[in-house]
């Protein structure tokens, strides 16, 4: 089993990555929880809900599902889950289990962070993308004006990652997850990037996937441990996200997967980086890789002014000035202020390039 420990300001938690580990969740749960509330989605629950309940001995175990997809990460679902928690009489000794991808993890984590001012939760991720969202304690829901605008930093008690649950993922989910792995490689590990860029996603083996996940999680955990509340280097994990979040909000949540939007956002950040630092930073290689793996680059068709407005809601922005994570070289991210005029002209030429035949 691959195991990592993350030290936070409140406690340390373990990340376990293994095959079939979903049947052993009971081993990782303290036996004095007064009740357990499992939150999942309507695609994941039929596949894995029974498995994760194996060996859990409590009569007070409840579950509910949300519709799968980003559109569920909203205030209505949040309120519904809080209502269930109250109706089922959860208390401060209750545990929430988030079984699913990033949407379930972020939403269930935010419910846990705020129910009675905070109860324990564990993350049981079932997508590749969730290797990123389940680690680090960022929990949130979306507002229609901006992604993850209502949230907190609230670390889980454990992350239990069964790689066998990734076998059934549809192509767009594999693309979404690999975009975040590529992101981690770009900001922290040139060697990892060299392993990823020649890959054809359709032919990845289980062993490769396991290895990539471990490398990605390790990069993420190392950064989070050094800067839990994103005062400094954690901002680097936002590489590609300034444009991605704006695009997701502008297109409407769920129209593009988060990772696919991040892929477009990274490409844009590389375009600016190459221009500012006057060197090749793999823009062409990433573009080829994204095209070769069928990333939906044509979804980048939103109005530029609307995008800039949406980018101003990015959490790195200060005094209405947009900050983006760029690369000064591979593995060397930098946070840079950009004026509206600069962004406007970069976005215009980027849009032209993506729409060129
Ligand atoms: O964990 C982080 O920090 C990240 O920025 C990771 C991102 O990949 C992730 O999507 C995160 O939720 C975005 O955070 P936000 O603060 O920009 O909403």
From TrEMBL:
Metabolic or biological pathway: Metabolic intermediate biosynthesis; chorismate biosynthesis; chorismate from D-erythrose 4-phosphate and phosphoenolpyruvate: step 2/7
Residues involved in Zn(2+) binding: 180, 241, 258
InterPro entries in the record: Dehydroquinate_synthase, DHQ_synth_AroB, DHQ_synth_fam, DHQS/DOIS_N, DHQS_C
Highest taxon in the source lineage: Bacteria
Keyword terms: Amino-acid biosynthesis, Aromatic amino acid biosynthesis, Cobalt, Cytoplasm, Lyase, Membrane, Metal-binding, NAD, Nucleotide-binding, Transmembrane, Transmembrane helix, Zinc
GO molecular function terms attached to this record: 3-dehydroquinate synthase activity; metal ion binding; nucleotide binding
Cofactor: Zn(2+); NAD(+); Co(2+)
Chief subcellular location: cytoplasm
EC top class named in words: lyase
Spans through the membrane: 95-116
Cell compartments where the protein resides: Cytoplasm
Domain named 3-dehydroquinate synthase C-terminal: residues: 177-317
A single GO cellular-component term on record: cytoplasm
Residues covered by the 3-dehydroquinate synthase N-terminal domain: 64-175
Cofactor details (free text): Binds 1 divalent metal cation per subunit. Can use either Co(2+) or Zn(2+).
Example GO biological process: amino acid biosynthetic process
Listed EC numbers: 4.2.3.4
The reaction(s) this protein catalyses: 7-phospho-2-dehydro-3-deoxy-D-arabino-heptonate = 3-dehydroquinate + phosphate
Binding site for NAD(+): 68-73, 102-106, 126-127, 138, 147, 165-168
One Pfam family hit: DHQ_synthase
Protein's job: Catalyzes the conversion of 3-deoxy-D-arabino-heptulosonate 7-phosphate (DAHP) to dehydroquinate (DHQ).
Homology family: Belongs to the sugar phosphate cyclases superfamily. Dehydroquinate synthase family.
Listed name of the protein: 3-dehydroquinate synthase
Organism in which the protein naturally occurs: Pseudogracilibacillus auburnensis
Organism phylogeny: Bacteria, Bacillati, Bacillota, Bacilli, Bacillales
